[in-house]
Amino acid sequence: MNLKKWFRCTNSLVMLFMYALVVAQNDCPEFTFPLNGDTDIAVNATFTWAEVIGYNGYILSIGTTPQGKDILNAKPIGTDTFYTPPVGLPANSLLYATLSLVPYDGPPIGCQEISFTTIPVTTPPGCSILVTPDNNAASVTIITDIEWAYAPTATGYILSIGTEPNGSDIVNALDMKNTLSYDPPNDFPQNANIYVTVTPYNEHGAPTGCIEEVFTTSMDLYICDPYIDDVTGTYIYPAPQIELPNTVGICSDELPYRIMTNDLADGFRWYKTNSGSEETLLSQSRNVDILGPGRYRLEAFNVIETENGTIECTNSKLFDVVSSEPATIIKIDVLNFTNSKDITIVATGGGQYEYALDDSDGPYQDSPIFTGIPYGQHMAYVRDKNGCGITQRTVDRDIDTKDFPSFFTPNGDGINDFWQFIQPPENFESVIDLIFIYDRYGNFIHQINPNGKGWDGHFNNSPLPETDYWFKATFINRQDILGHFSLKR
């Protein structure tokens, strides 16, 4: 290949690469929450961004400096469009978040970086709860790890573990820093009650009254642990596998609400968890009738025969029952721009809601704010996440002739003495610029500022007679409106 041909080929490849890079960067996702410059962001905030089709996923980094990664270091998110940092964010801090786009081939593509500020914290955190094992779990393997839930605003956790209530003979007030798990260096004792206390803390101290939780270890070493079948090579689970979700939503008008499990097990127990470690047994069948919101536990067990007798291999799952109801849309705020508008849906109610525009089937988003929406009529939808209904309301409508007064009576009695456009309570997508008044022959009489007092029925300081008059309303973002009205004395 001669030198001239080589340069031509190389330049073409460079141009092709640059074109592909520009195309990819144009596809970059944008954060939908938080937005750049936001303040008072909760420390347990969930990051969300717009979906981009045709890529292998996203990478999220969070730091305390531009392009920083000291809080979250290039975390692969997959194709999800949301992520909640497992140990939260530092309070009262200016933070930076960066999204990268992962193509199916080639290196990640750097995209949007935003900065935002988290809320200040002035009180200690709330209490945490055990995640693994569940409170009151039975037949727990003696080699189990201890895991607990994140407590918003916590910067660390103190862990105590003992074989007696309020005991610490296994772990004595160990500072776990800002982690959510503990891998015991030694096995727990067999067939024993293990008491665990996790106390979150931050710079303002620790909460009081955090409950001590308890679980019971298995009587036989590893008897309830999963193992591989020598013949089939598949995993065998002596304890039942529970597929119940973490949260069960019920509608406020559906009580009592029946929950049923299709899990395979020899038996079941449903409990209502109370304060401390107390529980109330509700049912010993596949289903339970829930009388109200709260925290519950399903325990499923298989009966296993061993050399030491019959034991139960048990698995349990804590879940929350939350009450929901359809939303009430209080108002819809519209901010008009030259070529688009921003829409904010303000809704209230006792449920968890998501929001959509123009289609009751979605797509829905957690944020009630929609930006860059084109002009035209729109319908707002608010859907309860637990299936309790969808509420809808018209976002706005356009101004027409019926929105202008059909007459006025300028007789000096202080009532209806001026003719003027009066803004109705609905949101309008159009913005009036000026209003011009004409007589029936098309002669110009008066010009009105829509924010002014209006026309008093005079021309050159002389009152005009009773008759019909015409108006023309001009707009910033649409065609004029022509109409007429009556002057009555």
Automatic annotation (TrEMBL):
InterPro entries in UniProt: Ig-like_fold (IPR013783), T9SS_type_B (IPR026341)
Signal sequence, renumbered to the chain: 1-24
Superkingdom, taxonomy of origin: Bacteria
UniProtKB keywords: Signal
Protein name, UniProt field: Gliding motility-associated C-terminal domain-containing protein
Native source organism of the sequence: Maribacter sedimenticola
